[in-house]
């Protein structure tokens, strides 16, 4: 139990550090919602290596703590919606993908995250006009998801099971 | 599913969304009326073709967030804002595009519509 708690807390800390580092990078494209999503590496890795329940805890706490740090209610709402959709899609993909296809899970989940975020933005802005951004967000989700997915894939390849799963 | 099938699915999604992006970026909006919308409420409508002298005005959100909006003949932009990412400022001038300028932290949006009326509102 203590080991599990320690491991999850450590992963949460890593996710928050990635989140904080990424926040310092100026936006590359002037499209709201487009970001690298480095913390996604931790989410994908935890989903395949640690467990679904642990991943949910890490993801939810990262969104809550990260948004408190960024200090914006609206970005919290959008992040939470995106994270929820992303998590559900990952849960589904985990059943049909192998350990060598983690990068696929990451790309699809990143797209799902951005779709969830756009859907949540519609009631917040009280107009469907924000859906115009959807193609940009799907494309960017694919690219950033592939990048973070490949990072997670390499991490799993070079961090042997025994070193991370030892109880 | 095989990896190859997944690659095909992802590539198809990239192609479709990429084509939609190009269409949105290079397609022209027929509208010349700019709507400034905050929290879903239209604050003002500006006929960009009827603008004479350039001017600026400030929109203050319910939580005190500020966006400075600059209007010139035929175009409009957010010239300054106190939101953290300032994406609305970086989006630049809105003149003919169908992609609106959005400031997510302040829930502000500027979009072009053709004329006024209920249709333009729900658009």
Q: Output the number of helix runs of chain B.
A: 3
Would you identify the regions of chain A where 5 or more consecutive residues have pLDDT less than 50? none
Main beta-sheet strand count, sense and barrel state of chain A = none
- Counting copies of identical and different chains, the oligomeric state is heterodimer
CATH superfamily of the largest domain in chain B: N-utilization substance G protein NusG, insert domain
Which chains have the largest interface?
Answer: A-B, 34 and 33 residues
Poorly predicted tracts of residues of chain B: 117-123
If you consult CATH, what is the topology of the largest domain in chain B? mini-chromosome maintenance (MCM) complex, domain 2
Helix-strand blueprint:
The complex is a heterodimer of chains A (167) and B (123).
Chain A: H1 2-23, H2 40-49, H3 52-70, H4 73-96, H5 102-125, H6 134-158, H7 161-165
Helix pairs in contact in A: 1-2, 1-3, 2-3, 2-5, 2-6, 3-4, 4-5, 5-6
Chain B: H1 3-26, E1 33-38, E2 41-47, E3 55-60, E4 66-72, E5 75-81, H2 87-90, E6 101-103, E7 108-113, H3 118-122
Antiparallel strand pairs in B: 1-2, 1-7, 3-4, 4-5, 6-7
Describe this structure in words.
- The complex is a heterodimer of chains A (167) and B (123).
- Helices cover 77% and strands 0% of the residues of chain A.
- The radius of gyration of chain A is 16 Å and the shape is globular.
- Chain A has helices spanning 2-23, 40-49, 52-70, 73-96, 102-125, 134-158, 161-165.
- Chain A has 167 residues and is an all-alpha fold.
- Chain A has a single domain (2-165), classed as Arp2/3 complex 21 kDa subunit ARPC3, CATH 1.10.1760.20.
- By secondary structure, chain B is an alpha+beta fold.
- Chain B folds into 2 domains: 1-27; 31-122, Sandwich (mini-chromosome maintenance (MCM) complex, domain 2), CATH 2.60.320.
- Chain B has 3 helices and 7 strands; from the N terminus they run H-E-E-E-E-E-H-E-E-H.
- In chain B, strands 2-1-7-6 form a 4-stranded antiparallel sheet, with no helix packed on it. In chain B, strands 3-4-5 form a 3-stranded antiparallel sheet.
- Chain B is globular.
- Chain B starts with a helix and ends with a helix.
């Amino acid at each position: 139990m203590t080991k599990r708690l320690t491991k999850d807390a450590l992963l949460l800390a890593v996710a928050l550090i990635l989140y904080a580092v990424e926040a310092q990078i100026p936006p590359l494209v002037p499209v709201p919602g487009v970001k690298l999503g480095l913390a996604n590496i931790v989410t994908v890795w935890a989903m395949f290596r640690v467990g679904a329940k642990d991943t949910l805890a890490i993801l939810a706490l990262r969104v809550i703590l990260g948004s408190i740090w960024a200090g914006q209610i609206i970005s919290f709402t959008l992040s939470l919606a995106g994270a929820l959709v992303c998590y559900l899609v990952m849960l589904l993909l985990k059943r049909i993908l192998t350990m060598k296809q983690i990068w696929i899970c990451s790309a699809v989940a990143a797209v799902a995250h951005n779709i969830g975020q756009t859907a949540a933005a519609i009631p917040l802005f009280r107009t469907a006009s924000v859906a115009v951004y959807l193609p940009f967000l799907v494309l960017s989700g694919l690219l950033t998801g592939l990048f973070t997915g490949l990072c997670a894939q390499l991490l799993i390849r070079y961090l042997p099971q025994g070193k991370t799963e030892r109880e | 599913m095989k990896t190859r099938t997944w690659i095909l699915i992802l590539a198809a999604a990239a192609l479709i969304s990429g084509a939609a992006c190009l269409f949105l970026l290079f397609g022209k909006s027929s509208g010349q009326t700019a709507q400034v919308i905050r929290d879903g409420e239209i604050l003002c409508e500006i006929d960009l073709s009827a603008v004479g002298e350039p001017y600026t005005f400030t929109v203050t959100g319910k939580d005190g967030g500020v966006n400075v909006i600059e209007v010139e003949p035929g175009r409009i932009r957010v010239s300054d804002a106190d939101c953290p990412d300032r994406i609305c400022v970086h989006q630049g001038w809105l003149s003919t595009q169908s992609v609106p300028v959005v400031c997510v932290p302040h829930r502000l949006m500027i979009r072009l519509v053709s004329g006024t009326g209920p249709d333009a509102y729900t658009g």
